[in-house]
Amino acid sequence: MASTTTTAVAPVGISGQTLARTPVKVAAADRASRSGIWVGLFAITMSFMAFTSALFVREGSLDWGHLVLPSILYLNTFVLLASSGTFELARRHMAAAAQGRIQSSELGKIWMLATLVLGFGFCAGQYTAWQSLRAHGVYLATNPNSSFFYVLTFIHVLHVLGGIAAFGYLLLKTVLRGASVWRSFLENTAIYWHFMGVLWVYLLLLCRMKLQ
Amino acid sequence: MSESSAQQAHVHAPSTGFWRKYVFSLDHKVIGKQYYALALAAVFTGMILSWLMRIHLVWPEAKIPGLELLSKAGAPGGVMTPEYYLSLLTMHGTLMVFFVLTNAPFAAFGNYFLPIQIGAEDMAFPRFNMMSFWITFLAWVVLMLAFVIPDGPPIAGWTEYTPLSAIGKDAGPGMQWGASLWGLSIAIFCAASLLGSLNFIATTLDLRAKGMTLMRMPLCTWAWFITSCIALLAFAVLLPACILLILDRHAGTSFFIPAGIVASDRVQPHSGGSPLLWQHLFWFFGHPEVYIAILPSMGIVSHILINSMRKPLLSARVVIYSMMSIGFLSYMVWGHHMFLSGMNPMSALAFSFPTLTITIPATVLTLIWLGSLYGANIQVNSASLFALGFISMFVSGGVSGFFLAQPSIDIYLHATYFVVGHFHMVMGVASLFGVFAGTYFWFPKMTGRFMNEGLGKLHFWITFIGAYCIFMPFHYLGLIGNVRRYQSFVNDFMAPYIPLHKFITIAALITGGAPFISLINVVQSRFRGKWAPEHPWNATSLEWSIPSPPPWNNFGDRHPVVYHDPYQYGIKAAKGDFVMQDSPEQVPAVGD
Questions:
Q1: How far is A181 from chain B (nearest CA, A)?
Q2: CB contact at 8 A, A128 and A143
Q3: Residue of chain B nearest A48, judged by CA positions
Q4: Which of A68, A167, A183, B324 is spaced 20 to 30 Å from B36 by Cα?
């Protein structure tokens, strides 16, 4: 695969037309993508703050109980944080390959694949945690603690799956179609993925402190 | 290199196929018009619902032709049941707040003009932009389905207060599936609004033309930008609230439902939930929503007034800072909607203080508009009339906000028509005046033709006088204790005031006809209107530097460069008394 450059005047079109893109416009589009990801993360943070506020309000009720967190959550945490590490390695390799500092980005692809596997591993682990609770008769509506646990973890997994989708798209492009990586997309996905790790650590601490 | 970041840039080619050009278009201008069309559908539906409610209020036994077709159970023999009145009330509020006041001034005009006014080719993420419209459309379809399901629309009001909105069919007609459709619709709407806001913010921050500094952006662009920041926070909170509401309704959870609730003679199988939690989450969105509706109109009106006065505002910079202050403070005042909830008086005071504080930037804005108008030789046309009407409505409706901000007064007035009059004027009618002003002002840009001025002025005067005839008496009715949300007053102490209610109903029927004049004007002018010249208003901002209607890529191959602030009026220049933003012509500094 040839190295990537970001300053080319490249053709782009959806209906067969060819449009000239200037480097200035490309840089602006990249900046907008970066702004977009941060704004998106801000919105996600606000949503989880709303859930957290709801939890704090609901905590004061008489039926607030205790929930024994499935121990697999800690393994899941390790898996998700490890995936952040592999993603970072992938990102650096791909970036270095794109800038021509290393010959091949094959290792980057392997790290990307590892990240994908770990991402799915985390989701499977969360599913196992839900199954474990269900096996003990703890369902969504059993008590407010379980309600919040299921809601927080499920919505987090949905967001992780969103990251996996973006990641799968990248992988599809680079591995199967042989395209060089789109740097800004890769970097924005990396930011999102790392944020998912940080968010999960926050949620785990919240669950430990408030639901257990 | 087979692919680079350049290829992934946001731009797109002109579309030729029908579906891509008119339906699933990536063009921000088409998407803006789609939002406008959706808002039109919603506003006419919402207005007809208000007609039905007003007729029922004063002639409760009246048989309304065709109403039985809408709902046999809700209007047997064409006579509205009390419950169906509440259903229509809910749908009216939801349609107007979400699908009209959020869509028209913000999403519709913002989509169409924000990219052009900052010199961009399109929004930052055209596909997200298209998705956000179609997701909004889906939300509208889901909501409207409530009219056709056997259950009917929900009866809980546009605020869907818990616990009754959360317990299902035992809460009354429309509360089984109708309320679920409401929750689902609003959750979908939130997702769409988040996508849209993200797009607006990224576009404004990163796609501005060379020379277009933040302070050189037109005031309406500033208003859309600030609104998108507010919307991002507000809808990010309402979405989780809707998810929890849906779970309470269908998954047996108890986030909002306390123990011991008895409805339809059944003890509800829930425990420990907090109805106030819903109110907190809802109003954390709900009060900023007021500014999501009104701020874009403030920006549009400022933009149009400056053009009509042919001179800058006293200080555009202070207008920007005032709008920012309003946006910031809007997040600190949600509790003033809950003074009646039994909150600690100290909490009420804590919410009352910022509520009163928010009147400071609002007053500053008003004084700047009025101070700038002083001595101005304003050009009177439909657009400037609606802009002036906006100020009038904003002040008249806003003044009653001073009273409602005081907990001791609000406790008396909160459940009365005083509040209905207040928010309809300051949030509803004022915001719509901004939309009308924008429509008359930008129609030549969007179509290349003028709208009919005679019909425009007729539309204005009917709407202006009518709005006062409807909503000012509401304040009076509220003061004498006329409780809102009731479907009939004939048999209680309100009977002496029925003639006033009849006057309001007749005023509503006449005033509601005015938008139809506007609709006829739009359609007629679109095809037969007088052709507009290149500079129909001798305006300065970038949208007037391109052909009308704008080409698909706005500026063609040209990269606009901005040299001036957006309001260089009242000066001696080559083209007249104005200099366009992208003109390199040297001008003396004007305004700030």
A1: 7
A2: no
A3: B240
A4: B324
